[in-house]
Amino acid sequence: MLRKLVTALLSFSLMISSPLTWAFGLSDLQNTLEKSAVISGDFEQTKDIAMLSKPLVSNGNFVLSEKEGLLWLQATPFPVTLILSDQTLRQKMPGQPEQVIHAKDNPMAFYFSDLFLGLFHADADVLTQQFSFELDGSPEAWTLVLTPAEAPLTKVFSQITLSGGHNIDALTMEEIRGDKTRVTFSNIQHASALTDEERRAFND
């Protein structure tokens, strides 16, 4: 009886001194990120270019639709609208003809566009196939550091870092040549469908 009591006390003391730990993994991150058919919000993009003394800063808002693609509305320093779908990338600027790029004509541009969308969703296939990664934190505050594992990413990026909680709050892309782009997201909203205004913006 005494031996059993001592064993029980030792086991209890070990549990107290060495609490169980939980490793926050990629599947946990995917479960943490809020999922919906439409995600929208504001962005601020800061681009540090090696040859420039001051960073380039732009602001605007975005709409990410599961069905339609990505709507990127830059408001400052000048208005630009980018509409990305599966097969086309459209750019609109006031007073200029619309520019349209097709996936079949510029597959590399769409490779990086698809990569961006995969990062935004923390797509496990994108992350595990094309990067080695380190993930630290918890569902409330996490940081994911990605190191490209194969070309063409290895020729462009040295590291990509995402951070956030239940949404992605920031995305930082560091390039081999020394340039660095940081995008911060705010006022994130989730919806089950596009508004009429958003639908028109995608289709105009």
Automatic annotation (TrEMBL):
GO terms for biological process: protein transport. Keywords: Lipoprotein, Protein transport, Signal, Transport. Pfam families: LolA. Gene3D superfamilies: Lipoprotein localisation LolA/LolB/LppX (2.50.20.10). Residues 1-23 form the signal peptide. Monomer. This is Outer-membrane lipoprotein carrier protein. It comes from Grimontia celer. The gene is lolA_2.
